[in-house]
Amino acid sequence: MDKILSNEKKALSLIAILSIVVPVAVAILMVLPESARIDTDNPIVQGLPFLHAVLNGSTFILLLLGGVFIKRKMIQQHRLVMASAFILSAVFLVSYVISKLSNEPVPYGGEGWMRSLYFFILISHIILSVPVLPLAMLAIYRAYVNQIEKHKAVVKWTYPIWLYVAITGVLVYVFMYPYYG
Question: pTM of the full predicted structure?
Answer without folding.
Answer: 0.88
